[in-house]
Every structure is written in structure tokens, then in C-alpha cells.
Amino acid sequence: MREAVTVQVGGFANYVGSHFWNFQDELLGLADDPDADPVFKNDALDMDVLYRSGETHQHTMLDFTRVYPHTALVWCRLVLECWLRVHGGIICRVPWFFEFIRSGSVTRSVSKPHGRNLFLQSLVEEGQNPSTSNGASNSQKSVEDKDLIDCLENSVNFWTDYSKVQYHPQSLYELHGSWTDFDKFDNYGSAQEVVSDWSQIEEMNERLRFFVEECDHIQGIQFIVDDSGGFSSVAAQFLENIADDYTNTPVLLYCVRDPMTLGSSRRNQRESIMRALHDAVSFSKLSSFCNLMVPIGPPSLSRSYMSSYLYIQDEKPFHASAVCAAAIHSITVPFRLQRTGPSSDLAHSSGNLDIGELLHILSDQGRQNMVTALDVAMPAPSLTGGQRTSISQVKDSVCSVYEARETKPKFSHLSASLCPLPVPLPFPSIFRGNIGRHGEILSDHAEESQPKGSLDIESIPMAARLRSSSAVLPFIERRSGSLQKHGVARGAIGSLVLRDWGFGREEVEDMAEHLAKLLGPFHPEMDLTSDSD
Prior knowledge:
Helix content: 25-40%
CATH class of the domain at 3-88 and 165-340 and 350-373 and 470-474: Alpha Beta
Structural class: alpha/beta
Distance between the termini: 26 Å
Shape: globular
CATH superfamily of the domain at 3-88 and 165-340 and 350-373 and 470-474: Tubulin/FtsZ, GTPase domain
CATH architecture of the domain at 3-88 and 165-340 and 350-373 and 470-474: 3-Layer(aba) Sandwich
Strand content: 15-25%
């Protein structure tokens, strides 16, 4: 067994994580469903890579084996009240409260409960009446699926509102703090109170240690962080401890952001400088403690390509996070492919590799702490005129494309699986009318304007590519330049901001030097500008 442990830190990271685990939950259900598409029933994907087994007492005195994700989730108490499915299938209410200091005293404020939405109510109903989820007629359900979709499209306020996965209690950790306004938790320095509280950092370490020690042979840690604000500081401290405690364990870092935080024309000069410094400091710190960083989100998800097929409302985190999660799911498929014989390898999957092997392929000439470009096709275009493609056809098509290139990558690796991305019910209606039930691109439905979701589409073929290439150069240059201009240069007005965030002159210079080193491999004279795919 080569398990992978997943860590999610921050609000949008957990939005992404909820979708990611919903995909995995759907795959588990389809594999056991006798009426499901046979493509979900092959043994190519080893789901135990991401899951653990546990015993629980539910409804009877008998023990049932239940699987839980190998994952640790970190978020802030200021997420108001949420509902989570935890150990034993119980719906657990987590009340919102925050603490703030006033006149030397601590006051606790409690909100009105944030009740279950229709989707969460339906999960409770399923648990009480299992027949409603096993072929029961619609008349036996108190809520129609269409009503659930409408509810999710219009009333998702938190990442817990659409999570259908049962988490182990050790997975969940809430940060404690003295914030009175979550909007102020928006820069690297705003988390000083958390990262200086060693008890909280140690508690997070213990949650991770619980899952790592349960692994027979851990292949790596995949870490999803919302790096748009204070959570990037929390994640950097967490990653530093991981680097110290698990020296030989590869760490693959996905950085995600709510599209609504990417830019604002309303910022004044000081706010713009703080945002530029946050991006630079966050990038420097996070990249220092991982083996590979993958920025996910616009523009890295190639919106220009997907705009013909997807309708994403940026103001809804429920939408954008679904695409990010689909990309992460696609990237992680090779880590879960079964190591089988040649004949079955060609039939159901090809090109299995673990996290360490992926890093080795992308670490051209032994470079470390890299940033890699991500390309995603959702859906992937058909290679056979709308019919399902075989593994050998995928391999032949990709190889022919590379052969036709004038500039070929130094190293490349292709992984493929017949299993498409399942579209679970709690998935946003983001597909345009020209997408068919199995993700095929329809030429005669281009004029349909009503977005499609899980009621119309069962699965989507996906293609994802990681590239170690000069495509990431502008991303690094922008952050390196910001730190030099606003933090290092003599008289830089951002130096006071960095000082308020707890950084001395020497540490700022060290961060700038680290960013300069990340730029080094892309200089033409070093001959490292070719892709590794």
C-alpha cells in the first residue's frame, strides 16, 4: 500500500476539498452500484490510497467497517455555524463563536444557528431511510433532486453546505483567535496570533501524525492551501514542521484562491502594496517547505479554452472550487493506479506513478522547491468522434502530438485511466448546453443557454498536464520584483508593513534571495527552459 495523506488549510481550500472528496465518495458508491456504468467498476483505481478503514457502531450493536479520508482540515471559527458528517454518520453541529480582547477581558459572542439546507437535510433522511438512496421512487423522497440542485446553486454559504463525506473526528481542526472581522484575516501578517501560539500548531501536527502513523507506506503528502490571506502563514508554519518531522516524505502543494480575491480596482496605494507583499512573502515561505508547488485557478486553468464549455460564476466559490477540485482529482489519478500486469495495464489504465516519481520527472537536473504550470481540459476533447477512447488510442494520440512539435520536452510521462470524473449531485451547474451526458462535446446544442449540472451530466472526461517550464516565469518574476521594490530597496515604503508582520531586515533579504534562486534555473544561459511534462 502506498497511501497519500491530504491536508486542507483555509476557507477556499476546504471548498475545493469538499468537491474533491465528493468525487471520491461518488467513485466508491458507483463501484458498488450494480446499475452503474461498468467504466466505474474496473479495479484500475486503488481508493485505499486516499482512505482509511475504521470501525463504528451505527443503529445496531454490530460493528461495520467504514472508510474515512486520510485528511486533516484546518479552518477558522469565523465560518459561522456548519454541519459536518463525522464519525458514525452523525451530523455534528459546530457553533460559531469568536473571542476578542476588550479592556483586558475576553468576551464570547454566539451567533444564531445556521440551519441545515435542503441538501444536508436529505443526507439525514438517507441515513434514516437507506431505501431512499437505493432505487426508491421519487415519490418516496421528501425532496426532489431538482430542488436540491436549486438549493445548492442559490444558498451555499460555507464549504460544509455541500459536503457528503464522512470525516474522521481527527480530521477537523478549528483555529482559535481574537478576530472580530474575518475580512481582516486577509494578509500574511494577520495570522501572527495563530502561528505564535505553539499549542495550536502542535495540535495541527498531532492531527496529521494520527493519519501518517496509520499508513503502511506513505508515498507523500498533498497539501491544499488557500493562500489569499492569513491562512498562508498558518500553512507555512505547518509545512515547516512537516519538513522537519517527515524529512523523506514528498510534499505536493496546491495553492488555490477564490477568484473574487484575485484583484480589485478599489485598492488604495497602501492596500495594493500590502497585497503585492502578501503574494511575495506567501510564495517565498510556502515554496521553501514543499517539493513542488502547483498554483491552481485563473489564469492557470486556461479559462480561455474552457469558456466554450463551462459557465462559471466567480462570485460563487461553490462554482470555481469545483473546477479546481476536478483538476486536483485528475492530477492525483496516477498516484492511485494499480500496478498490474501488461495486459490489464493497457485495458484499464497506464502509467502509474507515485508522488515521489512525479517530482523526480519534473525536477529537471535535480532542482527542488519548484513551481509547475498546470493545464486542464474539462471536458477533454474526443479522439474518436464521440465514442469512448481506449488507453492505446490515448497514448498514440498524445505521442503523435509530441512528435509533431519542433521543440520536445526533455522528459515526459503519460498516465491514463478509462475512469472519467463522476459528477455527483452536489456539483454546480457549470456546463454549457453543448456538453452531453457523458461529457461529449455536442455540435448541435451550441445555442442552448441553460447551464447543465448533475441532473443532465453523469461524467466528464478530463485531461491534465503538469509542466516544469518557463511558463511559470512571469508568476515568479512578479513576486520577486514586488519584494525587491516594496520590501528590500532602500526607503521602500513596504518595509514598515513587513516589520509589522514580524519580519526583520535580514529575514526579508533571505526571502528575496530565495525567490532569486527560483528564477535562476529559467535563465537562458542555464539551458533549463525546455519542458518536463
